[in-house]
Amino acid sequence: MKAWLAHHLHSLKIAVRRFLDAPVAGLFTILVIGVAVAMPAGLYLLLDNLDRAAGGIRPQAEVTVFLKTELAPAQGKALADRIAGQPEVAQVRFVSRQEGVGKLEAAGLSDIAAGLPDNPLPDALVVTPRDTTPAALENLGTRLRQLEEADRVLMDTDWIKRLAALMGLGHDLVFMLSTMLGLALAAITANTIRLQIYAQRDEIEVARLIGATDRFIRRPFLYFGGIQGLAGGLTGGALVSLGATLLDTSVERVAAAYGAQFTLASLTPLDLILLAALSAILGWLGAYFAVGQALRQVEQS
Asked: How far from chain centre, in Å, is Cα 233?
């Protein structure tokens, strides 16, 4: 166990020394990786803030159930109580036909309401669901249409479907961008490692002659790739957090101009840890494949 730890510590020291031997090139590589990491992370943070903002301004989804005209108000209220007991329903409000006429008059249609010989409006139930996703609203609307007391059910879910489609498109874009830039990160690391191997070709050949295994030769390069990816991930997270901090004041001013309060959220510590870990893994993978290919070429030559 002590020998294993000593070997890994020795490889880690070699990787750190290689960074220190070329600090300018290493910093530029880390910055490039950081920018590549910051792009999908920034888009993810943008979508998260847009979702929070939409959650604060979106209207409450409601389903209106118009009852049959022959139904007594007491029966309508009893139906409201029965629907309110369902787990997917947050609230049910009974709207009498007299209240409906009052709303027409309040909307400036008092002349029309006064010219009607009888009140043609039925009693209605305004149902507020707990789950406002399009699928849940459709299921609730289907069940409400099957009620014997219901004459007509109205619900406006178009805006919910559009919002869900746009957010789904945004998350797909984040996934695609993350995949492409993740491959770019691995390619950058692989190219850096390949150049290092060619620069140390004579040293590698000598190490093989004295009995060094490929695993022993590969280990410092793997640490180098992992450290480079880790540093790039931390740099990308820092760039995104800095951008969010710089834009926070401007976003607050825009929200205040519309009479709202909104604070731009930044990456959480967990997000930063996951971002750095993923970058380190991609850097390690890029180094692993690059070292394997380069060592085979050195052996064949």
From this structure: 17
